[in-house]
Every structure is written in structure tokens, then in C-alpha cells.
Amino acid sequence: MPAERGPWRQQLRPYQIEAGRAILESVLDRQGRSISVEIARQGGKNELSAQIEALLLSVHLGHQIDAVKCAPTFEPQGRISLRRLWSRLVEAGLAPISSVEAGHAIRVGRARLLFMSAEPEANVVGHSAQLLLEVDEAQDVNEEKFDRDFRPMAATTNATTVYYGTAWDDRTLLEHAKQHHLELERSDGIRRHFEYDWQTIARYNPAYGRYVESERERLGEQHPLFLTQYCLKPISGGGRLFSPGQLAQLEGGHPRQRAPRSGETYVAGLDLAGGASEDNAAAGNRDATVLTIARASYPDSTAMMQEPRLEVVEHYTWTGEPHDKLLPRLADLLREVWQVRRLAVDSTGLGETIARLLTTVLGSHVAAAVRFTQESKSRLGYGLLAATNGGRLKLYAGDGSLESRHCRGELEQARAAYRANRTTNFFVDPADGHDDYLMSLALLVEAGSDAAPRTARGRVRSF
Comparing C-alpha atoms, which of 131, 100, 455 is closest to residue 301? Predict the structure, then answer.
């Protein structure tokens, strides 16, 4: 490995060396194996890949030969890998015989590594990977695209193929490659899959371990991002958003509160009738406006966890009420009655106008309009799960009211669908009812996070 034989600044850890040796053995001995490497987020998979690339290019600098590395996108993922490799070549003193070609390839002598996008529309046909074929963030690469356009690149020389990434769900290119490799291992005993979770990395980097422990506290052990990015455990493609245990965590013992109390801080989430969630809007199933109010308690600035504790104290629901008639009452409740510190309001579809008006009435420092997109809704879903897992979100004790029953019913029916790009969609199937309370609660968590007191930080001026 480079760390063992050259002037490389970045030293590899034992688990990186273990996987790297297997890759180099397959390439240099022309074994043509397929290998998968899963390393927890920020655990060094990109550094491992760059050092392998640098070593192979330097070894083959006298040969007219190409390697190919594909990533879900060229900007920024492919570009970042290219810059990392160039840095390693400079550190090794190879810059005088190296060059960047056309902005997407690095040449060392006569050997070359091409960085390519695996986006569905990318035109990559015609290239060959005689030396090595790498797939970066393989869990996000379209399997059909890879099989059609990239896999054949390794055919002429039976080149080694390496899949790098972290777990996601059971339908990804990386997971399929991993399972195939494990099956071959059971057959011939040759190791082809290398997996190192956060605890492995923490043995060599205690600071990393402390960081992941704080993420575990913030997200919860069962959060999809913690499970996949740090524990390397794939999740199923879809199912219930909340487990029975998580539903139990949401139950609070405090009573419903019809009016604010002096000295308390309140935040709110507002889901407007007529907004356009991905699943229910098309079915015409969004016909209620739900306002959720919560008491927010914030830790002091010295606490490791800065997220607030949110105790839902009140629900307001309107069905079939025109937005123009709702606006004055909403403004009064939010500004005059509860004096909320922060409101997050759904501004999708027909909700855009009232969200804009509320922002004008309350001020942009209080009201935040949230348009539901794939990314924003995924953020809301992950935030809702994190607050639940961390015990930071509690419902008022069930009081037998319609609002209490409807809210809990939607949480029980809520489903999650995980996408290949590591985003999630959460919803209630229209056949099972509405999702207005669910969305209002997710917006509430967003409002609580936005309202957290900010700690002043100094800035270093750059010259």
C-alpha cells in the first residue's frame, strides 16, 4: 500500500490496508475479481480509493492503459475524487509527470484514470477500463445504467471492479453486489466483501467515535441515517414510519393546554388544506387545516445537544374553511394568543398564498414557509424521526378528543418509502385516511429546530 512504501502524507489505518491489499492483489495479479467495500461515513473510503489509484497509476506509468471511476454525479462527487487523487500525486512528488486532461481525467505518464458521471443521461459509451473499474457511492448509482454502460468497460481485460459506499436499502447496486460477493465467499472462501462500521473506525480514531455517539443521541439508534451510514445496516424499501416502540416514545404525560402560560416558549407547525403532498393531493384527500402548538424547552449553550424538547399542548383543526377566512384567526392565535417564537407552514400548492400572508403578518423571523419537495419533505421526515427517537417530542396525554384520536391514528398509519438517493417520503395511504396531523407535527419539529437560540461564533478573516 502507498502508506507503507512512499512519501504519502495520509497514513491508512489497518482496516483500510486490509481492503486495499485485496484490491491491489486482484489488479496486479490480473485476477479480475469483483470487490465491495463498505466503510462508515467519514471513515476513509475516499482516501483508500485515492491511494490505490495513485499507486496503480504510478506502477503503470509506462503503459498506455486506462482506469475508470464512476460516481452518481460528476459535479460534485467525481470532481472531489479527482482533486483528492491529484493531491496525493503532488504529495508523492509525481506532479512533474502528471496532468489533468479535459477536466475529467488524470494522467501519470501514459496511464490514465477517467472520472465519469453515472447519471442516467450521461453519455459514457466507448471507454474501456483495462486497469480498474471503480464505482463510488455505489448505493446511489442506477443499476440498469451501470450494467448497460459501465460493466462492459472491464470486459476486454477482465479488469477488477470495486464498489465503494455505505448501506442504504435492499434494492441498491451496492447491496446486490455485496450479497453476490458473500455468496461467492461461502462457495470458495475468498473474501470479496469488506465492511467496517463506525465502531471499527472508532478503535483507531476516538474523536470520530465521540462524534458518532453524539449523532446516535441526536438521531436515535433506529434512525434510518444512523443505521445505514454508521452501522452499515440496510433498511427495507418501505414500511411503517413508526415502530410500536417509537409510538410509545411519543406519548407524553402532560395535559392538553388550552392557553399559554407566562414565561413559556411556544412554536407551531401549520399544515394547510389544499397543500400538495406526494400521495394525498392527487387523490383529493387533503381537506383539513391542522395547527399544532408545542411548548419548547431549549438547553443552555454548554450542552452537547442543542435540539429542543417539544411538548405538544394544543391542536386546532378546520375542515372546509376557506383560506381567506382562516387567515385572521390564524394570525390572532399565533401572534396575539400563543405569541409563537417560530412557525413552519406548508406553502405547497394552494397553501402558498396564505403562507406568504402569514409571513408578512408575523414577520419572516417568526414564520417560515416550507414548500414540499422531495428534499424538503425528506428532511422533515428525518427530523421527525430524530426528535421521536431522542425522546424530544411528546404528545399531550390522550384525552379522548377527536384531535387526540385523529393525531394518534395518523401516526399509527404513517408509512415511509426510502429512495435510492437516500431521501425518504412519509405519508398516510389515502385508503387509510389523512395525513394532516402527521405533516403538522413534522412542521412543528422543523419550527422548533429553527427557533433554537444561536451561539455566537467568531470568524477568522481571510486575506
Answer: 455
Average pLDDT of every residue of the chain: 90
Spatial distance between the Cα atoms of 112 and 350, rounded to a whole number of angstroms: 54
Tracing cell 408575523 back to the chain, one arrives at 362
Query: How far apart, in whole angstroms, are the C-alpha atoms of residue 28 and residue 52?
Result: 11
Grid cell listed for 37: 467495500
Q: How high is the pLDDT of residue 8?
A: 44
Region of 343 (left: φ > 0; alpha: ψ -120 to 50; beta: rest) is: beta
Cα 286–Cα 290–Cα 291 angle in degrees, nearest 5: 155
Using CA atoms, how far residue 421 sits from 107, 140, 148, in Å, is: 31, 5, 20
Domain boundaries defined on the chain: 2-204, 237-450
Query: What grid cell was written down for 7?
Result: 512519501
List the CATH code of the domain at 237-450: 3.30.420.240
Contact yes or no for 54/23 (Cβ under 8 A): no
Q: Phi/psi at 71 (nearest 5 deg)?
A: -140, 165
Q: Are 397 and 314 in contact (CB under 8 A)?
A: no
* Coil, helix or strand at residue 161: strand
CA-nearest of 167, 182, 188 to 40 is 167
27 conformational bin, left if phi > 0, alpha if psi -120 to 50, beta if neither? alpha
- In the chain the first and final C-alpha atoms are separated, in Å, by 38
DSSP 8-class letter at 2: H
Query: 3-class DSSP state for residue 312?
Result: strand
C-alpha 188: how far from chain center: 36
Coil, strand, or helix at residue 79?
Answer: helix
DSSP annotation of 125 reads: T
| pTM for the full predicted model | 0.76
pLDDT digits (tens, 9 = 90+) for 17-76: 999 999 999 999 999 999 999 999 999 999 999 999 999 999 999 999 999 999 999 999
Please say whether the beta carbons of 137 and 71 come within 8 A.
yes
Distance CA 16, CA 13 (A): 5
Residue whose C-alpha cell reads 461467492 in the numeric block: 184
CA neighbor of 70 nearest in space, from 43, 104, 19: 104
> For residue 188, what are the contacts with CB-CB under 8 A and spacing of at least 6?
none
- Cα 48 vs. chain centroid, distance in angstroms? 22
Strand locations in 262-418 (E): 265-271, 288-297, 309-319, 342-346, 367-370, 393-394, 415-418
Query: How far apart, in whole angstroms, are the C-alpha atoms of residue 359 and residue 353?
Result: 10
Assigned CATH topology for domain 2-204: Rossmann fold (3.40.50)
Say if residues 425 and 378 touch (Cβ distance below 8 Å): yes
Identify the CA nearest to 350 among candidates 291, 272, 290, 277: 272
